[in-house]
Each structure stands twice: as structure tokens, then as C-alpha cells.
Amino acid sequence: MRRIVIRENEAEVFDRGGGVQSIPLMSGARGSQNVSTGMTIMQPGAGLPLHFHDTEECITCVEGIASCEIDGEQLTMKPFDHVWIPEGAHHRFWNDGSAPMRIVWTYGKAEVSRTFVASGQTVRHMSSDDVAEPR
């Protein structure tokens, strides 16, 4: 089995616009069969729109304060709080704080899709259409 070490300072940063950047770490492109992981950094006032995925997701807040909504329930997460989001649950994350916020995400599939609730548009996770302000 080939071992892979991914260093954050060497990873590609995906700019999603609107003060949101993601850093993909593990995925099918790197040989994963069953998980996809990465980090998202949101500047103050930034966030992602309400959406859902075709797999379950786990989120860990590692920096700042993360505000989130999962199926209509609003939560606040501080560093090292974790939340599980079932497949198909409508959710979103945003940064109400005054400092950058960073979350780490893990999906239960190597390749993931995101469906934006407002438009019904489905995109491949981390594709050029997977943006903070969908068209």
C-alpha cells in the first residue's frame, strides 16, 4: 500500500470566491476508495449557501467560530467541536466572527456532489462550479 503525506503548505488552494477557500486533501484523485477530506477557510462574513451532498459528512472546527445550519437548526462550533451531517441533509456554514474560521471536512465517498438548495443545481465537489455564490 502506497502511503501519502499531504502537507498543507504544498497543497493546492481552491478559491471558491466570496472569501471562501478550500484545500482538498484526500480524494479519489489521490487513490482513496471511500473517503474525501479537506479544509475550508472562511474570512469574516463569508459563507457557503444552503446545500446537500450525496453522502454523509463530518465537520470539525479547528480555528475561529463556525456558524452552521443543519436541516433548519442553527449551531455554533468552536475549535475541536465536531458535527455529523447525514446524506441529503440541507446545511450551510458561515463565519460570523471577526477572525478567519477553518473547518476540516470528511465525506463518506471519494467523489462527492453538492446540490445547491436555492437553484437545484448539482455540481461535482471541488469543481469550477462549486463556488460560494453559485450562478
Describe the protein's architecture and organization.
0% of the residues lie in helices and 43% in strands. The N and C termini lie far apart (41 Å). The protein has a domain at 19-109: Jelly Rolls (Sandwich). With 135 residues, it is mostly beta strands. The chain is globular, with a radius of gyration of 14 Å.
Chart the SSEs and their pairings.
Elements: E1 14-17, E2 20-24, E3 36-42, E4 51-53, E5 57-63, E6 66-70, E7 73-77, E8 82-85, E9 91-94, E10 101-107, E11 113-116, E12 122-124
Antiparallel strand pairs: 1-2, 2-3, 3-10, 4-11, 5-8, 5-10, 6-7, 6-9, 11-12
The poorly predicted ranges are none
Proportion of residues in extended strands: 35-45%
If you average the pLDDT, what whole number results?
A: 94
- Given helix and strand content, the structural type is mainly beta
Task: Estimate the helix proportion, in percent.
Answer: under 10%
Quote the distance from N terminus to C terminus: 41 Å
| Number of helices, where a helix is a run of at least 4 consecutive DSSP H or I residues | 0
Tell me the CATH superfamily of the domain at 19-109: Jelly Rolls
Rg of Cα set: 14 Å
CATH class of the domain at 19-109 equals Mainly Beta
CATH topology of the domain at 19-109: Jelly Rolls
**From the 3D coordinates, which CATH architecture of the domain at 19-109 would you assign?**
Sandwich
Largest sheet: 6 strands, antiparallel
Number of strands: 12
Element-by-element helix/strand order = EEEEEEEEEEEE
Main sheet: strand order: 1-2-3-10-5-8
Basic shape: globular
